[in-house]
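Before going further, learn to read the protein records used in this course. Taken together, the tokens spell out the fold as the letters spell out the chain. A record is reproduced here so that you can trace the correspondence yourselves:

***
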Amino acid sequence: MKSFPLAQRSIPRESVHTEGNVFPLSASPANASLEQAGDSLDIPRYKAYSLPNFRDIPQMSGLSEALKFDIEVVGQVLPFKVDNFVLEQLIDWERAPEDALFVLTFPQRAMLAPAHYDEIAALLKSGADKPRIKAAANRIRLELNPHPAGQLSHNVPFLEGEPLTGMQHKYRETVLFFPSQGQTCHAYCSFCFRWPQFVGLAELKFACREVDYLIEYLRKHPEVSDVLFTGGDPMVMSTRNLAGYIEPLIEANLPNLRRIRIGTKALSYWPYRFLDEDGDALMALFERVAGSGRHLALMAHFNHPRELGPEAVQRAIARVRQTGAVIRTQSPLLRHVNDDPALWAEMWSRQVDLGCVPYYMFLPRDTGAHDYFSVPLVRAWEIYRQAYQRVGGLCRTVRGPSMSADPGKVQVLGTSEIGGEKVLQLRFLQGRDPDWVHRPFFASYDESATWLDELQPAFGEPRFFFEDHAGTD
């Protein structure tokens, strides 16, 4: 099956937005409060570290050689990149390597199965050449469920009989679009379920340069009201490139398109994206979206309350909000990083104080380093419940804990005892079939299960009701 052919409008190939200098902030409305707050913020030059140069990170000198070798081994399989903002302002190096933000960004030995780790380690120690190491890494990657929840088999839409491999359409109202120049990030999260986008295997990657296909698809699908630009991170693109996707979408005057979302980690990993010279143009683009009568939402990923502390992050949040865009926050619940209800309560409270809207507590998807990060469903519900109990009503907009599984987004509602049987109660927040949404169902109690496919139906039922739906695994 071939991909949809490239044609019509293409986005010019420009370098991604990865450099910063000291620029004066302009006097547009989106900058007014920044100027009133005092001196402009010094913006450093972006610098990224990955496997070839991570040993040059000054703070690495305080860590053991064994740990550095672990990073080198695991980084052959799972993507690794970190930038100078994360290194200098987010990681607590006195706590490394146990520090939560270090774990969030640096590969850890236990992220690979022992057999996989030993195989790559042996190749490195023997001085094997790069092609041999790469072949072994690629084989291991294919064993890590690189595209969970039917992303390749069930979510790719078709136009005129051809697959649109840079898009996904799983839920009726929402289409995901993967702009080709947004398929990297300023730094990589070690838990990321989109890790196949970054490892150089073309057959595992979603990307599209042709916004015309998206427009035509939306014309033919009036049920779609929301477009989510995702990646990678669309905020690595220059504003000119991002506008090349968004402005034609607005100019198409599609009556069904009511909301545009942008998934991003940039507010945490490189907040200067919103504060430098190109940030001025970005804010103007956001204002144009709001001026078109469409709702613009930044789906911001914050995994730890420490990410909300830096001045640059808080200024970036304020600046985005002044454009009329709404910032909704989300994160998976991650063992070793944020599996603590007090931490979640603090994070939601800080987000609301900054004007953000807590949106989702996800569970890490069953891909990549899932075994390292996963929390049993029962414990996840307990963390969510205890955190929810500690915050006021404005923080209780968050939904979770939620699994983005093949049939849909499944929320764990808690444990119950019905007819003498201890059960887990669940419901769909989103479903491949909209009729499933908010329909409760029950699974047999299981303290160790971390994902939907590990659960068994309660009350002796042979199958869950959604398993009879054609097209699910």
